[in-house]
Amino acid sequence: MDIKYFEYVIEIVECGSINKAAQNLQMLQPNLSVCIKNLEQENKTEMLSELEKLVGFCHIGKDNLIVESRNLEALRLFTKNGYYTSYYVPFDKPEKISEEECNSCISILQKIVDGKAVCALSFPCWWYSTIKERLHRSIDLLTWRHRTSKFMLLASPRGRQMLKDDQLEVILVKEKGSHHR
Length: 181
What we know:
Blueprint: H1 4-15, H2 18-24, H3 29-35, H4 44-58, E1 66-69, H5 72-80, E2 84-88, H6 99-114, E3 120-124, H7 128-134, E4 140-146, H8 150-155, H9 157-164, E5 168-174
Helix pairs in contact: 1-2, 1-4
């Protein structure tokens, strides 16, 4: 594990902004985001130790951070230690997979939720309707919608439905910018 990851996190905390930290580190913001999202089985213990130091030093509540990963075993360790954790749903769009594959994906998510290894599920908004209709489990949901605006989210029927959903804790909206093709 490269100690640079932790230097990036500390810089973000000190600057109060990922954009300002990226400027100070002379990095592009998307590259900095990827660097601090690489939680894996191999680095989970070291990452936990460093994050414990960071939350203590900065007086940040563990439940004020979202630790997100595709690695369920790494997340289990963070959940056990009081962090708010979210499993990143890595599946293709539901409309691009067969009904059988979609059912399999939902079954996997149900097992993850039932295992109580995480506090939430994170997924792109195209999974929202399918997860709401088929998951049938009580867990926080976190989603995002790229290449849209806050206005477009409010103007769309799905966006309004999402905003009224008590189970949906976070909706990130990322407007189309120069970093998109």
